[in-house]
Amino acid sequence: MPAINLAKAPQPASTNPAQIRNFCIIAHIDHGKSTLADRMLGITEVVDSRNMRAQYLDRMDIERERGITIKSQAVRLPWRSGIDGQEYILNMIDTPGHVDFTYEVSRSLAACEGAVLLVDCAQGIEAQTLANLYLAMENNLTIIPVLNKIDLPAAQPDKFAAELAKLIGCEPEDCLRVSGKTGDGVVELLDQIVKQIPAPVGDPDAPARALIFDSVYDTYRGVVTYVRVIDGHLSTKDQIQMFSTGVRHEMLEVGVISPEPVVSKGLGVGEVGYVITGVKDVRQSRVGDTITTYHNPTKVALAGYKDPKPMVFSGLFPLDGAEYPMLREALDKLQLNDAALVYEPETSAALGFGFRCGFLGLLHMEIVRERLEREAGLSLISTAPSVVYRVVQDDGKEMIVTNPSEFPEGKIASVFEPIVRATVLAPSEFIGAIMELCQERRGTLLGMDYLSEDRVEIRYTLPLAEIVFDFFDQLKSKTRGYASLDYEPIGEAEGNLVKVDILLQSEGVDAFSAIVHRDKAYAYGVMMTTKLRELIPRQQFEVPIQAAIGSRIIARESIRAIRKDVLAKCYGGDISRKRKLLEKQKEGKKRMKMVGRVEVPQEAFIAALTTDADVDKAKAKK
Amino acid sequence: MNEPLSFYIHIPYCVRRCGYCDFNTYTPAELQVSEDLTKISNNHIDLLIAEADLARASVKTSAPIPTIFFGGGTPTLMEPSDLKRVLQHLEDKFGFAPDIEITIEANPDTVTKEKLAALREIGINRISFGMQSGVEHVLKVLDRTHNPANVSKATNWAKEVGFKEISVDLIYGAPAESIEDWQTTIRTALELPISHISAYALIVEAGTKLAGQVKRGEVVIPEDDQTADKYLIADESFSKAGFDWYELSNWSKAGSECRHNIAYWVGANWWGLGPGAHSHVDGVRFWNVKHPAAYQDRLTTGAEPIQEREILTEEQMASERLMLEIRLKSGIAKSSLTAEQLDALESFRIGGSLDPDMWAAQRVALTQSGRLIADRIVREILL
């Protein structure tokens, strides 16, 4: 029986590093990582079958529903090797799987000596998995290639074994074959983790150095910080210190997760666990930072710490202006758990009071918005996402623009926009469609490689702004859902960019302004003016709708004046009914936003700011 | 206070229901009765008389009745002798003003000259025919059975038997009605011996057969702009022929305005007898239970047939006044409006919706194009 009775297993703070194996699982969103993790929890008997539930480690509803992991977790699994019969402690570090969280992934990887590369053998490797694999290889991790879902009728293990072998430079037969669902091959996988992945190495007598690879806010406990001890020792007796800030904290609790928290005396070299210090905000306990002890601090921080930098900005406004304080409160609360989220108050003439928020990427933005709506019960309207532009004016003055409405009016010498290196993996039949899309989005082809006979990796540089605007949706629809995308920022480039304003009766509507490439300005103008003509009800007077670059009109539409707004009949029985109807309509008028003299229903704003892809998604949810 | 009380008398029966109609009316099939309507008629009149007694007990006026209006449904389905019984009872209990106006709605298909004579005989002095359209294919879309020629026959009979006040109801904006169709209807109506015209833009009411047809795409409602044009055409043609507008949807020869309807619009007191009928007495609105069977139950067990009462607040009364008065040619007295309300009207005045002469005479009254957006204007000045 390879599982070990928990009470008899090696205990935290007194486990020999040689008995420890730290690993993570690199996998694409639906390639079965959570199911495999569930299976490992079961086989190592840290969770008995009575308490088992699907996606055991994913805490938030939103994770379970979308099948993605946002916050990583670390689980201590005792295991007796079937190969040498010795007792081991396996620390499984669950990594977030999405492109927006690359930095968090890199810190999780830095806490491990090895990685299980998990690939669905009906689908093959995906772009983000590939990106994370490269990250793992850069971190010198031992890679164990594993093909999952071998129980599926559509499984093609031989094909994808060849693909993996080519990628990581091993033999196809080195790829393990498992089924997270049935449990096939999982025992062998655990044994191979022990055999192949090196034990952690560190100096137990050196000043303590522990890497923060995750930091989670808990309503009852405050911030729970996940660490991997590199050198020295952390114990409850210590006062600890954050290397980046020098701030000292009391150590209230140390422990491991197995998979519920288990308090321990401390954590030694190579061990993975959590510390609680009473800190109330994850920004004081940042991923990537080094924890040391106050009385015997290290002089050398662990490499790789950096502040997360928002890449995408959007305005979030409550549909009901009265909910503004609730939105503020909800953002404050969310930030406790999300060091990457930044926001500041923003006032829009059209949308009222709200916040300009910065996100790591589109998924991050979607998750934040969804959590605000779900957890705080808010109804929000968000403006079109924008990237960070650097604008140099003719007089040499330079400014950073994250909101089109801040784009300077005067003469502009140059505008720089962020550029990413994008990798698309897809069946080769879609090469044409993908290249067409990337070309259309101002991309430059960097190269293309065949991963196998019929699968390609296509690399492009693209302006981030182009990706932010429904690129992923387009990519999915042009490839029948087969393509996957990863991107990383690689700098900035000058672009021929202009701000397009939308005017109603000659009044600008800030929420509809956009910074776009000059060649696309006309298309944007026509799209918005046409959309608005459909959405805005007829007014007492004719309303011209214009799109303009500066003072130059590039597109125009108009809404004819209303001619009939009266009910023909009003006799005895109609009077009460009609009065109530008018009162209701009057109430409805209060929800109208005034742009100059034009009444614009809130629904028109929402619809105008919604892309067709959003509409399709909303339909799909129903 | 000795406000006079007008009466509306509801006859909730029709031989068949028209596709656009959402009135409180019932066909024999809907009532699941096999006997002819005569028996129903007799019984219904007894109930109306019982309710009239309740009205007498609750309204303390000593003023005689100024107007009575038989509406429906199809009031002409009732025997004139039965209608006479209600009239007699009301006259006994309240008294009739010497110039009392007594109107009945009539279906041009089901009246005979003899019937019209009998109606005139019992004291009814104003008759309103549901003409709707003078074009056959429009009548068909409206689900009406009559032949356009019947209207001419019926109105002439009415004139011959001594009716001086004859009105027709018209509907415009029905599916498939062209501008030319509407002009034909107007021309046809103006050739009749009438003193009054009501013309209504078709409203597709939820739950009607027509609403179903629209929803299924079987018929298409013309665009509002075309319907607006039709209103303008009607107003021009009617006034050229000597019919002046006095309410948004009503035109008449001088002195032939419907005084009963004006009572609604100036907030006078009236009592509605019959199932579903609405009443207004001194700032209280109330209405009866809708179904004839429920109505009968209430009255035969000695209970009042009122389903609900609404006591209007000062503000609601003011809102109703604005909403109703703005539809009248006389409009609203500027002195009754706040500075804020007058301010809100400014853009409409500049936009040509308010009559400049009336404005100068301290009244807010609508121009032709203003009438077409009356509801929008009211929303701006509603309290």
Q: What's the overall geometry of chain B?
A: globular
Instruction: Give the overall shape of chain A, derived from the CA principal axes.
Output: globular
Q: Which parts of chain A are unreliable, with pLDDT below 50 for 5 consecutive residues or more?
A: 618-622
Lateral arrangement of strands in the main beta sheet of chain A = 11-10-16-7-8-15-12-13
Mean pLDDT of chain B: 94
Ordered list of secondary-structure elements with their pairings:
The complex is a heterodimer of chains A (622) and B (383).
Chain A: E1 20-27, H1 33-43, H2 61-66, E2 73-80, E3 87-94, H3 102-110, E4 114-120, H4 127-138, E5 142-148, H5 157-168, E6 176-177, H6 186-196, E7 209-218, E8 222-231, E9 234-235, E10 239-242, E11 248-250, E12 253-257, E13 261-263, E14 266-267, E15 272-276, E16 290-293, E17 312-318, H7 324-335, E18 342-348, E19 352-359, H8 362-375, E20 380-382, E21 389-393, E22 398-401, E23 412-427, H9 431-440, E24 444-452, E25 455-463, H10 464-468, H11 471-478, E26 484-495, E27 497-504, E28 507-508, E29 514-517, H12 518-535, E30 543-549, E31 552-559, H13 574-590, E32 593-595, E33 598-600, H14 602-609, H15 612-621
Parallel strand pairs in A: 1-3, 1-4, 4-5, 5-6
Antiparallel strand pairs in A: 2-3, 7-8, 7-16, 8-15, 9-14, 10-11, 10-16, 12-13, 12-15, 17-19, 17-20, 18-19, 21-22, 21-23, 23-25, 23-26, 24-25, 27-28, 27-29, 27-30, 30-31, 32-33
Helix pairs in contact in A: 7-8, 12-14
Chain B: E1 5-11, H1 28-31, H2 37-58, E2 65-72, H3 80-94, E3 96-106, H4 113-121, E4 126-132, H5 136-141, H6 148-160, E5 165-172, H7 179-190, E6 196-201, H8 209-215, H9 224-240, E7 244-247, E8 250-252, H10 259-265, E9 269-273, E10 278-281, E11 284-288, H11 292-300, E12 306-311, H12 314-325, E13 332-333, H13 339-350, H14 356-360, E14 363-364, H15 368-371, H16 374-381
Parallel strand pairs in B: 1-2, 1-9, 2-3, 3-4, 4-5, 5-6
Antiparallel strand pairs in B: 6-8, 7-8, 10-11, 11-12, 13-14
Helix pairs in contact in B: 2-3, 2-11, 7-9
